[in-house]
Design a protein that fits this description.
Length: about 625
């Protein structure tokens, strides 16, 4: 049942909000007229939605940012403080309902990116962001259903599904829930069915059960296999509830492993995630998205499942400052449970960018490297709290600290050619600070429009140090940085790299796409650099440079490699092994040379073009 809502900015206090006036708003949504408000109240009225077969009315809110309270007919029924977890409120019997929902800006450190200046204020309005609906159910019924797949890393044919079902009942109950697990679509294998007992005198009860999965069909990232899924249904009486899940293993030990196999990761960061962004990530040859310092909307997580894209999910914690470890642990536990049903769920980051940027404006060369080392040494960070919070996540690998070199991060953010130095400094950064295996952010910013003004997350002073010109020059510079850093990291065999970021949130930014999804020059440059099998130059600079084949597949490949330098064309046949880096030949290059590299296995052709600069 759809609802009509009104809203108002309010001053938060302990009482139910009673603004002088309300105005119509769209829910779910983020009413821009309330941008900057500390709290926003939302009101809806409706008649009893039940028919003769229904006994329960549930208000289901998804994405209530950030601290939420709910009143019905003047009585406070619920409070909530983790917006990535659905809020389900059982409403009392009544002929008419007036529901008031108050959403407050974060009262602690866990507002994530929405509590920073990285996103525009209109994207941070306290509200019901993702969904708001009424559900009616018979009695008794299953009101909530969650699943957590378990697959043995030692034997992927050994699989189970942990089921948790919440039962609503008006009378004492002694019955059995019928649980069925069936493959979705054309997935091979048969279905399974079990029955779990529920016996209670209370109005609600939780039933936990473990189902064995026979002959499991695994979920794979899109560049490795099929996205097999299963539908888990729980039936009690005439009421049925279902969720979709998938089976896979994921671990990290000097590299990510999915279903027991090595998985080189090529990722993109999402700052304002949409389901369309997941499809765009696939177009960029990415196999992972990192949703930075915020919850992932349900439709985005489902899109990751559908498209075979791994999901790195951060806690909503960003920027310098201490935080409540107990609160962080509770959020990490809730987040782990909320996303565990998604087979794409792959990793969790705890504290994003925990120290101020310390090297902005430094150039390259000996003295600037000394300054960089000195500032990095002073930018210490005690990771004990982040590491403690990370222990609450037990279903996927964790990266407790995501930040710059010098603070011993679990995942590093590297911006040579943008915040400091140039792209040639990347090798020094990685070796000097022993980083570069897990890179959670790299890249450069660019203009999306000729006159962007003040765009969130965009450092115009940094941009102007590197670029003298308009949109074309700006995007060309970004493209060069993204390409060089991506290719260098891949040549170093970095097992997990993530570009910052896929799409702008304003008229300029770090995105490879403008805010409306229009491609910048860097998008296709990254797509070429992210090809699982690609041929690249060791450096697009004058001098002797190697032609290198990058092969991130688990099987060997017989390739024909061709190179053209200023019209002089040559080729060679090469067999490359699994996950190999092979030097094909060496070219002596001069400034102004045009170089085209290509490789084919007889079915797919990849190509790279270079203009050698000074």
């Amino acid at each position: 049942m759809s609802l009509e809502w009104r809203g108002a900015a309010v001053a938060p206090d302990d009482e139910m909000p009673s603004p002088e006036s309300w105005e119509p708003v769209s829910v779910p949504g983020r009413p821009e007229q309330f941008a900057g408000a500390e709290a926003v109240a939302y009101e809806t009225t409706f008649s009893d939605p039940r028919d003769e077969s229904d006994a329960h009315t549930l208000l289901v809110l998804n994405g209530t940012y950030a601290h939420t309270r709910v009143w019905c007919n003047g009585d406070r029924l619920a409070s909530h403080d983790a917006y990535f977890e659905p809020l389900r409120v059982r409403l009392p019997e009544s002929e008419e309902y007036r529901v008031v929902v108050e959403c407050r800006a974060p009262e602690d450190r866990f507002g994530g990116l929405h509590a920073t200046d990285q996103l525009p204020p209109e994207r941070c309005v306290p509200g019901i962001w993702w969904d708001a609906s009424l559900e009616t159910r018979p009695d008794p019924c299953v009101s909530e259903l969650s699943v957590q797949p378990q697959v043995s890393e030692a034997d992927v044919t050994d699989a189970t599904v942990e089921v948790s079902a919440t039962v609503l009942t008006e009378e004492p109950l002694d019955d059995r829930i019928t649980l069925s697990l069936r493959p979705e679509g054309d997935v091979r294998g048969g279905g399974m069915m079990d029955r779990a007992r529920v016996s209670t005198d209370a109005e609600t009860a939780t039933v936990s059960y473990t189902m064995d999965v026979r002959d499991p069909s695994l979920w794979w990232p899109h560049d490795r296999g099929e996205q097999s899924r299963y539908v888990l249904s729980a039936k009690l009486g005439d009421a049925e509830h279902s969720v979709t899940t998938g089976l896979r293993t994921v671990s990290y030990d000097d590299g990510l492993r999915v279903n027991g196999e090595d998985m080189p990761v090529r990722g993109v960061t999402l700052l304002d995630p949409t389901a369309e962004d997941v499809a765009r990530a696939v177009d960029a040859n990415a196999n992972l998205v990192r949703v930075r310092a915020q919850g992932t909307p349900p439709e985005v997580a489902r899109a990751c499942d559908d498209h075979g894209v791994l999901l790195w999910q951060d806690l909503p914690l960003s920027g310098p400052g201490s935080f409540d470890t107990e609160r962080g642990t509770a959020i990490a536990t809730q987040l782990d449970a909320a996303y565990a049903q998604h087979p794409s769920f792959t990793a969790v980051g705890v504290h994003d960018e925990p120290v101020p940027s310390y090297a902005d404006g430094l150039g390259t060369g000996f003295l600037d490297r000394l300054r960089f080392r000195w500032r990095a040494w002073r930018a210490s960070y005690d990771d004990a709290d982040a590491a403690s919070v990370a222990t609450a996540v037990d279903s996927v690998p964790t990266f407790p600290v995501v930040g710059p070199p010098g603070i011993d991060p679990d995942a590093v953010t590297l911006y040579p050619g943008w915040r400091y130095g140039d792209t040639a400094d990347l090798q020094w950064l990685c070796s000097q600070f022993d980083v570069g295996d897990v890179v959670a952010g790299f890249g450069a910013g660019s203009l999306g429009t000729p006159d962007p003004g003040d765009s969130p997350g965009f450092d115009s002073a940094c941009h102007d140090r590197h670029v003298d010109g308009g949109v074309e020059a700006s995007q060309a510079y970004q493209s060069g940085v993204v390409r060089e850093v991506a290719e260098t990291l891949r040549q170093r065999n970095a097992p997990l790299i993530v570009v910052d970021s896929l799409r702008d949130v304003g008229d300029a930014g770090m995105g490879l796409l403008a805010a409306d999804g229009t491609e910048k020059t860097a998008f296709r440059a990254l797509a070429d650099s992210y090809e699982p099998t690609q041929v690249v130059l060791s450096d697009a600079a004058p001098g002797e440079q190697d032609i290198v084949v990058l092969h991130d597949r688990p099987e060997k490949a017989d390739l024909t490699v061709e190179w053209d330098c200023n019209g002089d064309r040559e080729q060679a046949e090469h067999t490359v092994g699994p996950f190999a880096r092979v030097t094909v030949d060496t070219l002596t290059l001069s400034a102004g040379d045009d170089v085209t590299l290509a490789a084919t296995d007889g079915q797919t052709v990849v190509k790279n073009e270079y203009r050698i600069s000074e």
